[in-house]
Amino acid sequence: MKPALKEQILTILAEIPHGRVTTYGRIAAMNEGATPRLVARALRELPAGHGLPWFRVITASRRLADHPGADEQGRRLIEEGVAFDQRGRVAPERLWP
Questions:
Q1: Which residues is 58 bridged to in the sheet?
Q2: Do residues 5 and 33 touch, judged by C-beta distance below 8 A?
Q3: What does pTM read for this prediction?
Q4: I need a labelling partner for 66 at 20 to 30 A (CA). Which of 14, 39, 89, 90 fits?
Q5: Where do the domains of the chain lie, and which CATH numbers do they carry?
Q6: 41/36 Cα distance (integer angstroms)
Q7: CA 26, CA 6: separation in Å to the nearest integer?
């Protein structure tokens, strides 16, 4: 991945407001040449202690992606007031932008 593209993805990640979520696809759409998979890759490559709100990025179906940090992601979102319905989806009103 080009360093400039990764930097753009991380810049957008840093802008996601507290209590809101966005999708891999929405971030990709804001970056020419990005795809949802590239966004996911950029998040997987975050160094320990980075402080960026990676947990605010969910799938297009408004669910958590299946990954090793999903339990922590769900916990952190709930702490921010993001609720999940019975199907594990976040309400569309919580989507940003």
A1: 23
A2: yes
A3: 0.96
A4: 14
A5: 3-94 (1.10.10.10)
A6: 9
A7: 15
